Amino acid sequence: MSGKEALINKLDFIKSELEKKFDEVVIYSTKSAEDTIERAKQSCYEFDAIIFSGGDGTFNDVACGVAAQPVRPVLGYIPSGTTNDIARNLKIPRNLHGALKTILEGETVFHDVGKINDRFFMYVVALGTFTGVSYRTTHDAKKILGRLAYAFDGLKEIQNPVLAQIRLKTETADQTIDTPLVLVLNSISVGGLPFNKNGHLNDGRFDILVVKKGAYKGILNIAKMFILGLLGLKRSHVTYHFKASKFTIETEGEPIWCIDGEAGPTGSVTIENYHDYLEIYIPKKRNKQTKSRNFQ
């Protein structure tokens, strides 16, 4: 159901292409997020590779299933969601032929995985203004409007922004901060915007961006953070920036955390980085010196 359901009629073609590389290809259509997680767990003991299609939420489901297992097959990703941030991070083409070529002819990298309380995540954990947009927006709206559907929902939060108090405790910091938005990133792109261009995907640490409060409960600082990031300019006057591999964030009340675009736990959390934990197909580079500047 991801994106506009464009792959439903192309499964035979996908299978025939994958059979050029793999001795046996089994197609399975998942019924729900829970079914995806369970099927990913089972597949770890049945197959050498798990190839899946969907958006960032689907990637999260597969990661949750695979990361919990002692045996973790290589993952191949065919992006078909609305924003496909993880595909942007990995430079995986967001078209079927390019994604299949990546799986058939590409190389692999090891990618860090995060864990928030007892749940794994791939690229972002967020709290505050705009963070509920991705999981509140209905599938029908995304199917019709694409990424524009998120914008319509986000307009509601501009009228009623959230300002929360958090206490961040890392190995080197202990700060209480009033903020409109917290982002814990193992990512370059969020919401389709590659604003964290100096981020790394397997350095064993997260980028923790805490937006400073300001005019209109920090709405302007949120906008500045994204714009300055896209331009590659310093944003220290609008955000606090921390790096850590394991830390806690204490909250007032029970706010909902957004995990890879889906609703997650509420209230205070512990977050930990699992270094080089999942192996993923990415496009092969002509320059053999480095796979990506975003990987160490």
Written overview of the protein:
- The protein is α+β, with helices and mostly antiparallel strands and 296 residues long.
- It folds into 2 domains: 8-114 and 276-282, 3-Layer(aba) Sandwich (Rossmann fold); 120-274, Tumour Suppressor Smad4.
- The protein has 9 helices and 14 strands.
- The strands form 3 sheets. A 6-stranded antiparallel sheet has the order 4-3-14-11-6-7. A 6-stranded antiparallel sheet has the order 10-9-8-5-12-13, with helices on one face. The chain has a two-stranded parallel ribbon with strand order 1-2.
- β1, α3 (56-67) and β2 (74-79) form a beta-alpha-beta unit.
- α2 packs across α3 (56-67).
- The protein is elongated.
- 40% of the residues are buried.
SSE topology:
Blueprint lengths: L10 H8 L14 H11 L5 E6 L1 H12 L6 E6 L5 H6 L5 H10 L1 E10 L2 E3 L2 E5 L4 H4 L2 H7 L2 H12 L4 E6 L4 E6 L1 E5 L20 E6 L7 H13 L7 E6 L1 E6 L4 E4 L2 E5 L2 E14 L14
Helix pairs in contact: 2-3
| Tally of separate helices | 9
Order of helices and strands: HHEHEHHEEEHHHEEEEHEEEEE
Q: Give the count of structural domains.
A: 2
What summary fits the major beta sheet?
Answer: 6 strands, antiparallel
Alpha-beta classification: alpha+beta
The fold-level CATH name of the largest domain is Tumour Suppressor Smad4
Strand content: 25-35%
Ranges where pLDDT stays below 50 over 5 or more residues in a row are: 144-154
Task: Give the termini separation.
Answer: 34 Å
- Indicate the CATH architecture of the largest domain: Sandwich
Question: From the alpha-carbon coordinates, what is the Rg to the nearest angstrom?
Answer: 19 Å
Strand order of the largest sheet: 4-3-14-11-6-7
Helix content: 25-40%
For the residues shown, what is the average pLDDT? 87
